[in-house]
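Notebook entry, structure prediction.
Reason for the run: the old model in the group folder had no record of what sequence produced it. Starting over properly, with the input documented here first.
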Amino acid sequence: MNFKFSHRENGFATHQPVLYVILKLTSGPVIEFGCGEGSTELIHELCKKEKRKVISLDDNFEWLQKHKEKYESEQSKFIYVPKSNTSDPEDASHWQKILKTEEIGKTDWDVVFIDQSPWMARYYTLLTFKDTAQYIIIHDCDYFPDNNIFGKTIKRVNRKKGKYLFDDVFKYYKIYYPLKPWPYNITGPPTLLGSNIVSKLPKIKYKKF
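New structure, fully documented this time:
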């Protein structure tokens, strides 16, 4: 596989071991919300040999094109999601719109990876797929309970692992933290793996990657 793991030093890539393991456990379609060096290359490198259906979406045209030029194929698709005509950087209506489309919102995905901006776009994406996807992976998951969006904060992260509940959205879930020293030394950041379909979620040894 033509891919180098960077989760030990890159705070934007601490989801990599989780994403890798879940991709290896599954064989069906994969969708990625928010392109990134830590996720897009990993997803498309793993899926191209098996010719799995993959869709990557982003609202940054230049960033999307960078990955599209390298990986777009018959089974790998890249979709630009143009922002709404608003000056509000937190507006997520463009994401809400595409989530309602047949191709995106009505497909039974094996893996849904959620890491786009703004924050509320991740929440709307979770709500769309939480009852139909085999696995959902959400990066920076601590943000949502800490800001009363979903989940519950039992103990905030303060250079130690925080404690969170996500049973308001998932029957089954696990939270994974990167190896120490954390790339982002305040929160990690942690990654949430959740499912309302698959009860047995894997133990993931970050040291292996």
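Summary: The beta strands are 30-33, 54-58, 76-80, 111-114, 135-139, 152-155, 163-165, 172-176, 191-195.
The old model has been moved to the deprecated folder.
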